[in-house]
Amino acid sequence: MSDISSSELERVPHSLTPATLGQAAWALMFVAIYIAVVAGAIVAVGLSGVVELTVESILPIFLVTVTAAAILALYIHLFRRNRLTPADIGFRRPTLRLFHLLWQIPAIIFVCGLLQGLFLIALTSIGVDTTSAGTADDPLADIVNLSAPLVVVCLLVIAVPTPIWEEPLFRGAFLDGLTRRFRPGVAMILSAALFAAVHLVPLTFVYLFTLGIALALLRRFHRNLWAPILLHAANNALVTLTILTVV
Fold this sequence. Notes:
mainly alpha, single chain, globular, 72% helix
């Protein structure tokens, strides 16, 4: 197949079976379904009055259950259904190349923030209201009202398991699947655009899109998923800590 030649840039061993685009799309659909079901169940329980959900408890419960639902959906509908192994998706033995992350992570986050800032300035200059891009309007802004133990729980969920399920899906299955059909550069752009779009926050699209490109580049440079997972984790932790200090 001609499109397989483009994937050779990742030097994937022939013994591995990278995910297809169809498998990635199927998994994403079920991740969305599982998350919707869990979120709906939480709302139903809260409205029923069976369990009294307070502002302080709803955010940690939501984060934990939604993340667990996404991980379960990914396991069942990507790995188990398709008999894929972690190595097939991109989990391989870390190498000393990971030390490059000491400069790559801060440089990438700086560039993402710079481009996002320029984007917001451009929108403001043409009369677009960008105030909703501030942390005060972020859904996670309520984290500042939580007790210290619950803040730690939320921070850990956002920084650890979230990247661990998002990266196998977007930089693993989707990037591999897109690389089968398109040139590597196009595949990275499309996977980054999808990654930014599914977060459903238009005013932060530039930041998320740039981050998605960087995550894909790290996947190729390091030839495994551990590098993008570490960048993703550092980014999520930094964003959450920024909310805690700014709001």
